[in-house]
Amino acid sequence: MSTTRHLVNRRRRLATTPPRTPEAETGPAPEQSTAGAAAEPESPQAVETTPTDLDPDPDATAGSDAPADASRTRTSRLRVTLPALLCALTVLLGAFAAWAFTSADSLRDEPARQNTALTDIGRTSEVKGRISEAVGAVFSYDYASPARSDRAASTYLTGRAVRQHEDMLADVREQAPKQKLVLTTTVTGSGVEFLDGDRARLLIFADQSNTRTGKDEETTYAAAMFAVDAVRRGDTWLIAAIDTFTR
């Protein structure tokens, strides 16, 4: 049996000892023990992550790489298209050179491009003076001296112009003896449209006066404009064709 002293001591121990909990009675759980927690490594699920520990955002990465990719793409395109562009430009320049050469040949062969009316001043002045003299002579007629007109025609006309002159003065020749006509033609201006070697074309401006010297003397005036084709024969120029611009 316990003595009174033993009972007293036992009661004192119970009074100073904290009450036990169910967990204290059963013992700590293995996963919550301090030793187990210290010994076991942290579970991946238990590791706290921060924004800096996460993988970079794919969109952000793509956005940061986009300028570099675009630059590389443009550089690649330039490397591909530049040779093609240079090749096309070479072809175009070659085609233009061929066209220009062909056009130059055709222009040199074209008669209109051989016009020296503005470059050969001496020849231009010569043909203008000679043809102006010829026009004044062949288109003037005096009823009292018809032979003079005939000599002028034989001196200054050739080819088709001979027949044209006869047709143009046929009425004057017929009426001149009756009305005692005197036809006078004066060249007031001329221009060389075309000059190529021994061929030329001139535009003629002239004033004409037709005077009746009978009892009722009367003078009429008219202006004339026509073109003539001239050819050089030896050291002189002759009228080869007359163009009155009429059909």
The gist of it:
By secondary structure, the chain is α+β, with helices and mostly antiparallel strands.
Can you offer a commentary on this structure?
This protein is of the alpha+beta class. The protein has a domain at 121-243: Roll (Nuclear Transport Factor 2, Chain: A), CATH 3.10.450.50. 50% of the residues lie in helices and 23% in strands. The protein has a five-stranded antiparallel β-sheet, sandwiched between helices. Helix 5 packs antiparallel against helix 6 (146-156). The radius of gyration is 62 Å and the shape is rod-shaped. The model is unreliable at 28-56 (pLDDT under 50).
Blueprint of the fold:
Blueprint: H1 4-16, H2 22-26, H3 34-39, H4 58-109, H5 121-138, E1 141-142, H6 146-156, H7 160-168, H8 170-179, E2 181-196, E3 199-212, E4 218-233, E5 236-243
Antiparallel strand pairs: 1-2, 2-3, 3-4, 4-5
Helix pairs in contact: 5-6
Query: What is the terminal separation in angstroms?
Result: 171 Å
Name the average pLDDT. Answer: 76
Number of strands: 5
Q: Into which percent range does the helicity of residues fall?
A: 40-55%
- Briefly note the CATH topology name of the domain at 121-243: Nuclear Transport Factor 2, Chain: A
Low-confidence stretches: 28-56
Shape: rod-shaped
- Sketch the topology as an H/E string, one letter per element: HHHHHEHHHEEEE
